[in-house]
């Protein structure tokens, strides 16, 4: 069975929390969306702040290669075993949080772990994003959206888009009625295969 076929059978969601604040608005919005998933779909939540994960060190060109410790290996396994991966990060300086970006940097190392088949195992899955921002103008999050879309495109994943909400102080996301409405159906939409802009341009020319 191909990775794509396997992911289409039994879905499981991994929510990766990347805020520097516990119980933040992005997490609250993600939990609102997750509450509307069918009860028989497993959910796993990982808070990057609770993991002893050091800054990523690129060792792919070293003779011994990269060695993964127990915490990193558990995170890698959780990532590749999920059919649906949800990146939950507030908008920090118009991009992802440092914790979330560090997690994505580890993907570079996992591409080169012997026997991991990271790229092959991620292919066919779906990447989603959830973010809260101190703006009413959601286009300011375009950089975050682009990062996630391109990451999904590189791994040949589907991209479900980013659920956005406007909030700054703790609990303020509950005042964004439109975000809460979108959350109810966010994980139920169709998810196209992620593509780079140049791939779309090539199709248009053809």
UniProtKB/TrEMBL annotation:
Keywords linked to the UniProt accession: Flavoprotein, FMN
Gene3D superfamilies, sorted: 3.40.50.360
Domain NADPH-dependent FMN reductase-like intervals: 14-125
A molecular-function term among this protein's GO annotations: oxidoreductase activity
Tagged with keyword Phosphoprotein: no
The name this protein goes by in its record: Flavodoxin family protein
Species: Streptomyces sp. R44
């Amino acid at each position: 069975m191909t990775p794509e076929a396997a992911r289409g059978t039994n879905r499981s969601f991994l929510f990766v929390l990347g805020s520097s604040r516990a119980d933040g608005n992005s997490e609250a919005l993600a939990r609102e969306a997750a509450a509307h998933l069918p009860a028989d779909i497993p959910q796993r939540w990982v808070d990057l702040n609770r993991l002893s994960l050091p800054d990523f060190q690129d060792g792919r060109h070293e003779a011994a290669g990269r060695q993964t410790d127990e915490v990193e290996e558990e995170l890698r396994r959780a990532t590749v075993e999920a059919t649906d991966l949800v990146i939950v990060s507030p908008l920090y300086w118009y991009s992802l949080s440092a914790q979330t970006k560090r997690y994505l940097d580890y993907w570079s190392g996992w591409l080169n772990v012997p026997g991991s088949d990271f790229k092959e195992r991620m292919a066919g899955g779906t990447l989603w994003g959830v973010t809260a921002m101190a703006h009413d103008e959601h286009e300011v999050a375009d950089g975050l959206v682009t990062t996630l879309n391109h990451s999904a495109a590189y791994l040949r994943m589907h991209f479900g888009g980013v659920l956005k909400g406007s909030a700054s102080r703790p609990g303020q996301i509950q005042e964004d009625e439109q975000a809460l409405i979108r959350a109810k159906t966010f994980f139920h939409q169709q998810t196209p295969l992620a593509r780079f802009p140049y791939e779309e341009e090539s199709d248009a020319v053809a």
